[in-house]
Amino acid sequence: MTESPVAYESAGETGYISVDNPPVNSLSAAVRKGLVEAIDAFAADTTAKVAVLYCKGRTFIAGADISEFGKPMVEPYLPDVISRIENCAKPVIAVLHGTVLGGGLEVALGAHGRLAMPGTRVGLPEVTLGLMPGAGGSVRLPRLAGFAAAVDLITSGRQAGADEAVALGIIDGIPDAADPRAAGEAEARRWIAERRSPRQISGLPAPRPEEDEIKAARARVERSARGQIAPVRAFETLVAALGMPFTEAMAFERSAFLDLMQTPQRAALIHAFFAERKAVQQEGLKGIQPRAIAKVGIIGGGTMGQGIAAAVLNAGLDVTLIEQDEEAAARAAAGLAKMQQGAVKRGKLSPEACDQMLRDKFRTAVDYAALAEADLVIEAVFENMDVKQEVFRKLDAVCRPGAVLATNTSYLDVNAIAAVTSRPADVIGLHFFSPANIMRLLEIVVADKTAPEVTATAFALAKALGKTGVRSGVCDGFIGNRMMNTYRTAADHMVLDGASPYDIDRALVRFGFAMGPYQVGDLAGLDIGYAARQRKAASRDPRERVPVFADRLVEAGRLGRKTGRGYYIYDDETPQGRPDPELEALLTEVRAGQPGNAATFSDEEIVARYMAAMVNEGAKILEEGIAARPLDIDVVLLHGYGFPRWRGGPMHWADAEGLGAIAQNIARFAETDDFFWKVSPLLARLAAEGRTFETLNTGEGAS
Ligand code: NAI
User: Fold this and answer.
1) Candidate CATH numbers 1.10.1040.50, 2.50.20.10, 3.40.50.880, 3.30.930.10; the one for domain 480-698
2) pLDDT at 555 > cutoff 80
3) What is the gyration radius of the CA atoms in the chain, in angstroms?
4) ipTM
């Protein structure tokens, strides 16, 4: 028999219930069972007057055991475990540390007193997994912290720090003690001396918010939910339960929780959660030691160079930034300082840490000799092969052996960049996303000759920067931009055929994207796509359809937000943009002479085409081995391209939609355009075999 992860220890008048279930003390079936047994042991212990519930390791119970989700539930159920704690005739004090989330906080709410060690964070993040609290969180929290605080924490899923938790009444205090056990010992002594009896949250009256307050809160929740059902369901359940007796409220909450457990949104959000964790697990890199990185060189101090410098400095590393001349270097330093001051304003960085890193850890230079000591150099100069190759030749000449040489290119061939050096094994692509100090995605582009040790170093760097690394092979645009080009082209074709860019944006925002493709284009600047089209014009296949309307906008000086006008008009009145009444005339002119220019597209058709293009390109990327697993693609789209998390990523979405239906759609689209719409053989095969992309997720990535 395996030992229980929960122990009860009788120590005179105080009993200790300790949980030891590494790594995060999640509420597995064994922990639930152990808690019941420990409470029973405490109840039967005639000398103990107060029990202290605490956890060993790095955190109090961090939450449910997510791997049990979607499987049949095993007794004892969590709500019953918690009511056993709450109904204990003698007081139980929980002492929290680490991240006390979801079921962990619900267990603590079953106790009669709660202390939190400094640095503790509490929260009910169930909505971020498509769920809501299911073990009393939405019933007990409003009774303890009031309506507004409970709605805020439960519908946003955000975490509160110990100080805030004290202010909200969730926590009684922050002890000054060596560890949770010592804090509990002192508190228990106090309770015994004061002869305190258990205070049950279930016995507190439920708050009675005014109708207006409920209405305003509902509007806020619905607005920020943006298509997610869990926050709305959590809100409505919480509100309705306020008017019920405690036990009825508990049953009502549980049934809403179980309903949500069955939804595709829950499955998608859990998929996203695990995909992020698996993306960074690379079977082929097991046992390979990454190189140590302390000194980082960055070449080019433009938009990306500045953002990358900020990300690297924030991780505590040292940065030397090279620019073309002193003036450009000064501009880059000023831009970086402004960026870091923004982080200070947002409370992400202390003013002292900001000053210190800019003074002691950052310098600019114009001479590459300054990089002689660098462990890693990240190139972020203009997107031009000749310029980049010239930079890598210089790096090859000055950098020490063993330095990792990385390019932040968006599209260019990393093999061709590596080839100009005498050390292609040390060259890799590190494709950051803008703004690089904020976006979590890092595409790690492994070239033909990149050494596994260098790839391992890139994954370690991603982790040090707080980013999710995803491995990609070399191709035009790697995983993300290659897919984006394809689905943007599908959108452009619809515009050429009669759809309004505004309808396309609206349909995709309704689908759940943060922005539609034309809003994104305006934000990024329409000149970028224009330059790429110009570059490729000479080698373009004559069957390729050109979005002439996009070229016309740029030629008329309408570059998007930065010029106040692109697809939309941006001014003081509508800083977020409004449709331009003149656009339709331009489109009509461009469409004349195009085949099928009078087509109309329903929202459903717009989504079907956009998503089919995305999924089909994803399948080709898999087939070519550019991405090792469908989940890698999902993570790229989720973290780099605003794909709605509650849809799990494009490949997960495709599985839920049915690969057969998508393959049929592609065949239908190909009837009028068989140049653009060519079904990926992999997609066709999986569809024919009735399989899903998920069945390909078993691998652990390549080396
Ligand atoms: P940018 O034009 O803002 O900055 C480029 C900087 O490099 C300029 O400040 C320029 O003075 C400097 N530079 C040029 N040649 C140099 C040399 N030989 N030595 C030192 N400095 C030199 O460009 P941005 O947007 O920062 O892009 C840089 C790279 O990052 C490009 O390869 C781009 O494709 C890639 N990228 C851009 C993203 C974006 O959203 N802007 C996203 C991901 C990658």
Assistant:
1) 1.10.1040.50
2) yes
3) 28
4) 0.97
